[in-house]
Specification:
CATH class of the largest domain: Mainly Alpha
Radius of gyration: 26 Å
Bound molecules: 1-deoxymannojirimycin
Number of helices: 17
Strand order of the largest sheet: 3-4-5
Distance between the termini: 80 Å
Helix content: 40-55%
CATH topology of the largest domain: Glycosyltransferase
Length: 541
């Protein structure tokens, strides 16, 4: 009886206590309740962040050779190199002052700038893209500022739809290069976090990724303008280098498997005239329009076949074969000599060759030179020569303008050679490809004309693109007083200034036997995996 009574009293007391608590809660204002909910939510987010920032398993760092100095002995060359470093400082300082944390800078309006490739959030694209250039130029205070911003502010849990390709080459590539150069863990951790956010883009019926993915929801889709819902060759075909490094650094084969799946699928497909079309439908696995380009929409796919082989310490023969087959077909169908003797690479459109070459295509001169060693039938001399001819043509496209800066696209039709015809192809947006080719040609030949051409471009950029708030693109390279586009592209700091700096440095700075540059000029070390296997995947190699 007593026990029953005691229990009943306890239940009554508990009940009253609960009622009291509920009343207390109800007394709280809506704002107070919301604040409590927010605090709880924040706790969960913090927990998650802690989990995500857990250190990754240690892996042996590849042999890192030549990450400092490259100081030339010749005072004239040193002076030129110093000038390029000063230009980098001007670009960075102005971004630091007027665009900090934004993706890019508007150097005339002196405020932040962004485009849809970066989604709608401020991800500091210029900071991430510029880090390794700052590092090799010895701008260490600036590098540290960038690192601090990344550590504190770079957050990928945002409701933002980004380009998988652009984020891969600029952010993952930039972070990985910064990690290898500096050894700072934060860059590796951020790269891996971001890669995890890109993985849902591969959830398509074929495993060919969507062009865009929402970092928060993981929902992907393709660009509205791309041939009947297709994915783009140069986008899904430019992930290999970064993804192999991610698997190497994490021991998780998931990244490697994604890109190898793409490769296997491409290998199985028929290629019209041996050429890869620029468009592939990720739902059906069928090609879209039969357009082939070594410029926009195709370019870096070919580049990454070659670089996959180089990065594997020349053991990935499958990639080398795909590269050799592809450039043989390109040479046969797309490369011609103009009446005036200029070698150019045209665009293939449904069985017809358009005699037009893009500024983007000019990177191919460097690619041919880089791939010369190890080419089929010992055609090394031939490919080095082809690289030199493309470099010459692209230099002509600069030299035939008023500003001595190259247009976005130029024709080889009738009497017109290496000159832009349409008004909307006359712009120069601080692109690197021509300078990139000068640098590779310089490394392989040491012909002084490449330094001379690089210096001409440096002076033209400084004269016509420099403004007090940074560097801007120009709308017409044939006009003596062109309008500015008011954008300082992040690739100007990542690529254009880096290639120029390397052109005036000694070859022992980032030697090509040890480093492979991704398509955004971020150097990644060659993985000497001869005696090892990629964790979890004995099939590698
Ligand atoms: C860069 O983002 C990369 O080089 C890419 O492969 C092509 N275009 C720009 C620079 O022009």
């Amino acid at each position: 009886r007593e026990e029953e009574e005691r229990l009943r009293n306890k239940i009554r007391a508990d009940h009253e206590k609960a009622l009291e608590e509920a009343k207390e809660k109800l007394k709280k204002s809506r704002d107070e309740i919301q604040a409590e909910i927010q605090t709880e939510k924040n706790k969960v987010v913090q927990e998650l962040k802690k989990k995500e920032s857990k250190p990754l398993p240690p892996v042996p760092l590849p042999n890192l050779i030549g990450i400092n100095s490259g100081e030339p002995a010749d005072p004239d060359v040193r002076e030129k190199r110093d000038k390029i470093k000063e230009m980098m400082k001007h670009a960075w300082d102005n971004y630091r002052q007027y665009g900090w944390g934004h993706n890019e800078l508007k150097p005339i309006a002196r405020k932040g700038h962004s485009t849809n490739i970066f989604g709608n959030s401020q991800m500091g694209a210029t900071i991430v893209d510029a880090l390794d250039t700052l590092y090799i130029m010895g701008l260490h205070d600036e590098f540290r500022e960038g690192q601090e911003w990344i550590d504190k502010n770079l957050d990928f849990s945002v409701n933002s739809e980004v380009s998988v390709f652009e984020v891969n080459i600029r952010f993952i590539g930039g972070l990985l290069a910064a990690y290898y150069l500096s050894g700072q863990e934060v860059f590796k951790i951020k790269a891996v976090q971001l890669a995890g956010k890109l993985l849902p883009a591969f959830n398509t019926p074929t495993g060919i990724p969507w062009a865009m993915v929402n970092l928060k929801s993981g929902v992907g889709r393709n660009w509205g303008w791309a041939s009947a819902g297709s994915s783009i060759l140069a986008e899904f075909g430019t992930l290999h280098m970064e993804f192999v490094h991610l698997s190497y650094l994490t021991g998780d084969p998931v990244y490697y498997n994604k890109v190898m799946h793409i490769r296997k699928l491409l290998q199985k497909m028929d290629r019209p005239n041996g050429l890869y079309p620029n468009y592939l439908n990720p739902r059906t696995g069928r090609w879209g329009q039969h357009h082939t380009s070594v410029g926009g929409l195709g370019d870096s796919f070919y580049e990454y076949l070659l670089k996959a082989w180089l990065m594997s310490d020349k053991t990935d023969m499958e990639a080398r074969k795909m590269y050799d087959d592809a450039i043989e077909a390109i040479e046969k169908h797309l490369i011609r000599k103009s009446n005036g003797g200029l070698t150019f690479i045209g665009e293939w459109k449904n069985g017809h060759l358009e005699r037009k070459m893009g500024h983007l295509t000019c990177f191919a001169g460097g690619m041919f030179a880089l791939g010369a060693d190890g080419s089929r039938d010992d055609k090394a001399g031939h490919y080095l020569q082809l690289g030199a001819e493309i470099a010459h043509t692209c230099h002509e496209s600069y030299d035939r303008t008023t500003l001595k800066l190259g247009p976005e696209a130029f024709k080889f039709d009738g009497g017109v050679e290496a000159v832009a015809v349409r008004q909307n192809e006359k712009y120069y947006i601080l692109r690197p490809e021509v300078i990139e080719t000068y640098w590779y040609m310089w490394r392989f030949t040491h012909d002084p004309k490449y330094r001379q051409w690089g210096w001409e471009a440096t002076q033209a950029i400084d004269k016509y693109c420099r403004v007090s708030g940074g560097f801007s693109g120009v709308k017409d390279v044939y006009s003596s007083s062109p309008a500015y586009d008011d954008v300082q592209q992040s690739f100007f700091l990542a690529e254009t200034l880096k290639y120029l700096y390397l052109l005036f440095s000694n070859d022992d700075l980032l030697p090509l036997d040890n480093w492979v540059f991704n398509t955004e000029a971020h150097p990644l070390p060659v993985l000497h995996l001869a005696n090892t296997t990629l964790s979890g995947n004995p099939a590698y190699r």
